[in-house]
Inverse folding.
């Protein structure tokens, strides 16, 4: 009885395996990348091999191709699958059949046999390129599927090959899209990114997220790299927060991906938000027991600080290479304006009695006339009779109809050119994010650890004074300030002035201060943090017209050496040894400066008894600050809070409450002075 039961279970297991192979092959037949079908089903049929499971995969692939593909693509896919199934049964007894190179070579060869027929018939470079890509994808997917199917135990796990198989499945799931662009399959992609980021080390999670995001971008109608950027940044934050709580990690992912939806058009941004929110909710709803099956915490001490740093550096290098490979590609060539006349002539001149004369006998004169009219057409955006030479307009017996058709095609041409320009701009911005991510990871990797930085207490005691005053008629100030210490004895002072005044300006400046503090606490250097903030605000400014000034001091409390970084900020002042210096800024605020523009940086050295003062432009500017320098020069107190109060009081006497005003002062105490509360 036990033998019969075991045999029955074996047959049931084989039957379920056949059904799974068939369903997977049918699903993969639906995968489409950048508008064309992807031969993942071919790779699966090759990988499954001979026997009943191979036959099930073949039948599933045939059913899927007839269901999802048009007839020409279905025919070539079915031909490849039949040839591969036949070859697997014919060569399965050979000794070299189990060699790693055999299956990819066989897949590539038989796929080439089928695809070469279509290349020969089409006689076009585009079809030849399509053939080469199909052969490479089919061979790669066959190799990866075979590796995953034969990895029966965890010790033989192949994460790279498994990722490639997953990418094919996700591409197939993302292909069905509703009319508004919503793709339920991308919800599965978000869930996959979260599971991987919650389970795998940072470098692996980031690589997988970028690959999944690029796959989703390739399946989208327009390739803007928004999914790769959003998934990559979300996976970075999720992986860093996974040890704290699942809710916090998922929340960080949702916020990170929402950040990339802000500069998008309304429909695209909403679709990205809905898909990411749905995937995040599914991740949160997974039972804890099931999640533990995916997530296995590494044993304590398995990865030391050096290993983590190496992984961060490798991830940063991968992002930098990805940025170089994508950003270095040439943009697509501009569409030839001659298409305007070609389409207009096709609609109007097809059955004209003068067709042979205009387009054959006197082709050169016609070509010259249309070339002369092209420049004024593109300059004005609409053609008129005077744009065409008289000999052409008088000869054409359907000139009014031809002119109307030209204007229709000209309008469509200009719309296509505008769309391509916006697409290229969005692509350039998205590609730039990879460089920013690489800078952030590099800075985090180079941050000294506790052992390297030492545990020496701060050598210079200090106290800070802050005062913010709202514009007359407003309840809150649009300025925000912050001060905090970093590991290693570095002090950071922040002052930001949001555009305008009131609650909206306060929200902008407070968010800038908060984000910079988060970046600096994570180990990012000041310049990299400010450039990342400027890049983000630059994207958001396209839809909100918002910007903010940033004034940042990072100071070593051991040596007194520091850096002042500014984006559009008012002057700052240093009082040392009885003298006052002014530090100016000429660059634009964050959000208005160019995306790649670095902040203005000034080195400063402070010692015991020194004052450092930051103000916003509601207090003074470089053209009217003589009174402020005189106030600082004559100041004999040691309380920075009294100093900023005196500065704002004097400013109000001179300017009134015409703008928000903020001041922040630092005083480095002398030996023997009592430490003040910060």
């Amino acid at each position: 009885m036990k033998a019969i039961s075991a045999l029955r279970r074996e047959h049931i297991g084989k039957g379920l395996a056949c059904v799974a192979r068939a369903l997977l092959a049918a699903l993969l037949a639906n995968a489409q990348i950048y508008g064309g079908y992807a031969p993942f089903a071919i790779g699966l049929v090759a990988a499954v091999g001979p026997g009943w499971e191979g036959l099930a995969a073949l039948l599933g692939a045939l059913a899927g191709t007839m269901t999802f593909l048009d007839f020409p693509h279905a025919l070539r896919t079915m031909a490849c699958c039949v040839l591969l199934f036949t070859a697997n049964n014919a060569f399965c007894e050979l000794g070299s059949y189990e060699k790693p190179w055999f299956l990819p070579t066989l897949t590539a060869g038989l796929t080439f046999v089928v695809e070469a027929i279509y290349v020969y018939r089409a006689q076009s470079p585009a079809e030849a390129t399509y053939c080469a890509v199909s052969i490479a994808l089919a061979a790669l997917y066959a190799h990866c599927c075979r590796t995953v199917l034969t990895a029966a135990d965890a010790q033989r796990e192949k994460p790279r090959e498994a990722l490639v198989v997953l990418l094919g499945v996700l591409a197939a799931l993302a292909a069905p899209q509703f009319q508004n662009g919503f793709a339920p399959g991308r919800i599965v992609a978000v869930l996959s990114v979260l599971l991987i980021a919650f389970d795998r080390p940072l470098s692996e999670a980031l690589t997988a997220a970028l690959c999944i995001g690029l796959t989703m971008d390739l399946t989208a109608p327009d390739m803007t790299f928004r999914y790769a950027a959003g998934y990559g940044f979300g996976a970075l934050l999720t992986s860093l927060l996974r040890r704290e709580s699942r809710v916090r990690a998922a929340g960080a992912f949702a916020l990170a991906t929402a950040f990339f939806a802000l500069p998008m058009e309304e429909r695209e941004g909403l679709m990205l938000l809905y898909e990411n929110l749905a995937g995040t909710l599914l991740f949160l709803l997974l039972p804890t027991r099931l999640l533990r099956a995916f997530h296995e915490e590494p044993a304590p001490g398995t990865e030391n600080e050096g290993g983590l740093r190496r992984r961060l550096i490798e991830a940063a290098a991968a992002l930098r290479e990805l940025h170089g490979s994508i950003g270095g590609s040439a943009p697509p060539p501009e569409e030839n304006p001659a298409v305007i006349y070609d389409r207009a002539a096709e609609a109007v001149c097809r059955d004209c009695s003068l067709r042979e004369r205009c387009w054959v006998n006197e082709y050169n004169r016609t070509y010259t006339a249309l070339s002369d009219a092209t420049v004024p057409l593109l300059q004005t955006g609409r053609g008129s009779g005077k744009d065409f030479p008289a000999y052409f307009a008088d000869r054409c017996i359907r000139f009014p109809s031809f002119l109307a058709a030209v204007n229709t095609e000209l309008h469509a041409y200009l719309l296509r050119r505008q769309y391509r320009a916006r697409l290229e701009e969005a692509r350039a911005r998205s590609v730039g994010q990879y460089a920013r991510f690489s800078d952030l990871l590099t800075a985090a990797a180079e941050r000294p650890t506790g052992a390297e930085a030492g545990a020496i207490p701060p050598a210079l005691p200090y106290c800070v004074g802050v005062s913010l005053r709202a514009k007359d008629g407003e309840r809150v100030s649009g300025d925000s300030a912050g001060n905090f210490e970093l590991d290693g004895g570095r002090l950071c002072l922040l002052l930001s002035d949001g555009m305008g005044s009131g609650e909206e300006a306060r929200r902008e400046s407070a968010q800038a201060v908060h984000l910079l503090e988060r970046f600096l606490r994570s180990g990012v250097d000041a310049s990299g943090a400010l450039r990342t903030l400027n890049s983000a605000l630059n994207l958001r400014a396209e839809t909100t017209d918002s910007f903010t000034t940033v004034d940042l001091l990072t100071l070593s409390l051991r040596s007194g050496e520091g850096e002042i970084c500014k984006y559009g900020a008012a002057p700052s002042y240093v009082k040392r040894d009885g003298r006052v210096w002014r530090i100016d800024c000429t660059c634009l605020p964050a959000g208005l400066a160019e995306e790649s523009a670095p902040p203005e940086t000034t080195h400063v050295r402070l010692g015991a008894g020194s004052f450092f003062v930051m103000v916003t432009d509601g207090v003074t500017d470089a053209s009217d600050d003589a009174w402020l320098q005189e106030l600082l020069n004559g100041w004999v107190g040691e309380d920075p809070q009294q100093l900023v109060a005196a500065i704002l009081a004097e400013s109000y006497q001179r300017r009134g409450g015409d703008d928000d005003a903020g001041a922040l002062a630092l005083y480095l105490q002398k030996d023997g002075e009592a430490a003040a509360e910060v």
